[in-house]
Design brief:
24% strand, binds zinc ion, 3 helices, 191 residues, 11 strands, four-stranded antiparallel sheet, alpha+beta, three-stranded antiparallel sheet, TATA-Binding Protein, 2 domains, 20% helix, globular
């Protein structure tokens, strides 16, 4: 049995404004009573996080399943992913063709993943990277590719909730509003 996480990634936050946006998002979550302002030992992989607040149930669909953990806010350049498993394919931002990494029998197809893996490392180091599409041969910004099961997101701000029930869509809209109407994506997975 693992720990379940849901991370709301702000796709429009930059290195420069991530901290300000994080504070605004946290402020909204605290005002709504969904998390507490103070920190405690309640998240995996970090010394402390914000525990659930008195109105945590407003955020989730299943209101009788109390969250098991708290909120950690990531404000560094981060390759967000879904934890276990792997991306099966990526979709080119130009031709919408799929770069497929595995056969139907889940055997890795040689040479397809490598340029993506290299680009992810480059982005992690520098904040910019591109991949040449194996189908149309055009170069696409790494962050413009889309992934099977939304496996990856590349960004500077993520609200990582540990062991909460699935979020209510209205909650996700509210948090996006608190982030200035930025584009957000919800990543969920297990560790
Ligand atoms: Zn293409």
């Amino acid at each position: 049995m693992g720990n379940y996480f849901q991370t709301v990634v702000d796709l429009d936050a930059t290195h420069a404004d991530a901290h300000t946006l994080a504070a605004g998002g946290l402020d909204w979550l605290v005002k709504e009573g969904m998390v507490r302002a103070e920190l405690s030992d309640c998240v995996l992989g970090a010394p402390s996080g914000h525990p659930p607040g008195p109105s945590w149930a407003k955020a989730v669909e299943q209101k009788d399943w109390e969250p098991g953990g708290g909120l950690r806010i990531e404000t560094d350049r981060t390759v967000f992913n879904c934890g276990q498993g792997e991306a099966r394919f990526a979709v080119c931002p130009h031709c919408a063709g799929r770069a497929v990494f595995f056969t139907d029998r889940l055997e890795e197809i040689e040479g397809v993943w490598e340029p993506f893996g290299a680009a992810i490392n480059d982005w992690s180091d520098t904040g910019s990277a591109a991949v040449v599409c194996p189908l149309c041969r055009r170069s696409g910004d790494l962050t413009a590719w889309t992934w099977s099961d939304h496996f990856f997101a590349f960004g500077y701000l993520g609200f990582e909730f540990w062991d909460w029930p699935d979020f209510d869509p209205e909650f996700l809209e509210g948090l996006a509003r608190a982030l200035g109407g930025h584009r957000t994506v919800l990543m969920a997975g297990k560790l």
